[in-house]
Specification:
Keywords: Allosteric enzyme, ATP-binding, Cytoplasm, Kinase, Nucleotide-binding, Pyrimidine biosynthesis, Transferase. By secondary structure, the protein is α/β, with parallel strands linked by helices. Helix content is 39%, strand content 19%. The radius of gyration is 17 Å and the shape is globular. It starts with 7 loop residues before the first strand and ends with a strand.
Length: 240
Amino acid sequence: MSQPKYKRVVLKLSGEALAGEAGFGINPTVIQSVAEQVKEVNELGVEVAVVVGGGNIWRGKIGSEMGMDRATADYMGMLATVMNSMALQDSLEQLGIETRVQTSIEMRQVAEPYIRRRAIRHLEKGRVVIFAAGTGNPYFSTDTTAALRAAEIEAEVILMAKNNVDGVYSADPRVDKDAVKYTELSYLDVIKEGLAVMDSTASSLCMDNDIPLVVFSVMEKGNIKRVVLGENIGTIVRGK
């Protein structure tokens, strides 16, 4: 299968995925591998937008649990996503891929402000667009950002790249050896069973806008390309 199944995709990367085994910070080898995989997809003519989390640097929830004001902690998390986005941008551009970072919080010295029409135009020109700083609002996760941006730019699918699992399981496979891997689920299944795929706000947004989600491992090189080409790896979540 050599023809892409999708024309425009949103790739959701967790901050933890960029940290590698260390669990914190940015692992140069991992981010280079991700950039190379994105390049493979870009060269197929697929329009790629990326949403990056910030959990490898800061998690707003942890700050809140420490007694910090929740909004302040979440804004700090948004800034962490900008750092990750700039690192990914640099890795992509070293590979010769034109890239733009757009932020929901204006910081014009380092990135463009998020403008929907401009983002779509960049994609149409073959540039990779990285959406940083979440939705720009506290209390919303980067999962919700991925769902929102996918709806806004009319992406055909969200590719949720994981670093520690290769799909959606009935329980944590690292803890429960009897955990069952799902090949296909509905968003209602995810919400009803409380499966740790994405938060309920993001799941509802995807369900309401009929945006499918593919959950897969990003740690195996070439997996992003395999998903884009339509190979059945990971778990697909769709419909009601």
